[in-house]
Design goal:
The chain is of the alpha/beta class and 367 residues long. It folds into 2 domains: 3-139, 3-Layer(aba) Sandwich (Cytidine Deaminase, domain 2); 149-365, Dihydrofolate Reductase, subunit A (3-Layer(aba) Sandwich). It has 12 helices and 14 strands. It has helices spanning 3-19, 55-63, 88-94, 114-121, 132-138, 140-148, 178-188, 198-204, 234-237, 254-262, 275-288, 300-308; strands at residues 32-37, 40-46, 71-74, 99-102, 125-128, 152-160, 193-197, 219-223, 244-249, 266-270, 293-296, 314-320, 347-355, 358-365. The strands form 2 sheets. The chain has a 9-stranded mixed beta sheet with strand order 10-9-8-7-11-6-12-14-13, sandwiched between helices. Strands 2-1-3-4-5 form a 5-stranded mixed beta sheet, sandwiched between helices. Ligand AOF binds at residues 28-29, 31, 47, 54-56, 76, 78-79, 83-85, 88, 106, 108, 111. Residues 28-29, 31, 47, 54-56, 76, 78-79, 83-85, 88, 106, 108, 111 line the site of ligand AOF.
């Protein structure tokens, strides 16, 4: 293996390590680190949980004195700020490593090139950009939050082969099979918020919790302009166990707001007068709270509004081999939609899988 292949190989390993932090580190990025002498790995680590040691520190601890003169592979630029832990750039300098290979720059304002600059100033050879696309894909939600102040929006739906999320009479349980629903629960267990529209909350009376629980407990959000969620709903009745936010509009009657607040829900008023404006206002607020991933579970109206506002970043779709027909049966994404096929949202990184009787497709929205 020549040096370039060796570099790619070790960075691949660092990316795999980083991915193990998913659901545990947010709103921090996932970061993995490998320390090597030639082909031999002498230390590795990853950022395991929010507030915990950074990947480089873990890997340096294992490598010990052998880190001197070694090459460090890290999926994100080493930090140079005093956060919850001392700067990694300093730890690397003190370990007198010879070379640091970085997949991508950290746009976090307190780092943003400073980590690389500090290492170079200390005479460490730095290479930036190896497997950068993969690193960016892995941390796309973190990058979006740091860059735009808004969370990464994941749309999820289950539909029949003829593209319906309910029959003409509104019956929707169940479309997908048991194994598909387990995947949804795993998704719920790693995101920061789970969002539905008012109609879905009313019709399905969902709990929106992960069963079994995952690494994090999501904030449950109902987009409910008139604050019409019933205090008797399963969401409101469990608000003391896991939080519920009702995203209302200014026109929501005061009595309803108070009733929901008394039931333990947080009522958040989205100020704008138009639906699209209110949604963006809500996403900004979720971003301010450092929520990184938001899972939107429908219904068609909410997903349509998000689609029209170009706010969907990723889709997870379960297609059941069933037909229900009916011109009035709901389809997954409503809203205005687009007129010309050439304007369709193009999906990238499409992954397909068979799950029990269903087909599971997930993909990113191209930008
Ligand atoms: C690294 N290695 O493994 C990670 C980094 O809250 P703190 O102190 O953990 O700092 C969070 C910031 O540190 C985060 O926003 C990102 O810029 C960087 N994360 N940096 O060198 C790591 N997790
Ligand atoms: Zn660090």
């Amino acid at each position: 293996m020549d040096q370039r292949d060796l570099d790619l190989w070790h960075m691949q390993r660092a990316l795999e390590l980083a991915a193990q932090g998913q659901g545990l580190v947010e709103p921090n990025p996932m970061v993995g680190c490998v320390i090597a002498r030639g082909a031999e790995i002498i230390g590795e680590g990853w950022h395991r949980r929010f507030g915990g040691p950074h990947a480089e520190v873990e890997a340096l601890r294992i490598a010990g004195d052998r880190a001197a003169g070694a090459t460090v592979y890290v999926t994100l630029e080493p930090c140079c700020h005093h956060g919850k832990t001392p700067p990694c750039s300093r730890a690397l300098r003190e370990a007198v490593v010879a070379r640091v290979v970085v997949a991508q720059r950290d746009p976090f304002p307190q780092v943003d090139g400073g980590g690389v600059a500090e290492l170079q100033a200390a005479g460490v050879e730095v290479e930036l950009g190896l497997r950068e696309d993969e690193a960016r894909r892995l941390n796309a939600p973190y990058l979006k939050l740091v860059g735009s102040g808004r969370p990464w929006v994941i749309a999820k739906w289950a539909m029949t082969l003829d593209g319906r999320i309910a029959t003409r009479a509104g019956s929707s349980q169940w479309i997908s099979g048991e194994q598909s629903r387990q995947i949804v629960h795993a998704l719920r267990g790693r995101v920061d918020a789970i969002m539905v529209g008012r109609e879905t909350a009313l019709r399905d009376d969902p709990l929106l919790t992960a069963r079994p629980p995952g690494p994090r407990t999501a904030l449950r959000v109902v987009v409910d302009t008139r604050a019409s969620l019933s205090p008797q709903s399963r969401l409101a009745r469990t608000a003391d166990q896991s939080p519920v936010l009702v995203a209302a509009g200014r026109e929501a009657p005061e009595a309803r707001r108070q009733r929901l607040a008394a039931a333990g829900c947080e009522v958040f008023v989205c100020q704008p007068d138009d639906h699209a404006g209110r949604l963006e206002y809500l996403l900004d607020e979720l971003g301010r709270r450092r929520l990184t991933n938001v899972l939107v579970e429908g219904g068609g109206r909410l997903l349509g509004s998000l689609f029209d506002a170009r706010q969907i970043d990723e889709v997870h779709v379960f297609i059941a081999p069933k037909l229900v027909g009916g011109a009035s049966a709901t389809s997954p994404v409503g809203g205005e939609g687009i007129a010309q096929m050439a304007e369709a949202l193009a999906l990238q990184n499409v992954e397909l899988q068979r799950v029990g009787p269903d087909v599971y497709l997930h993909a990113r929205v191209g930008r």
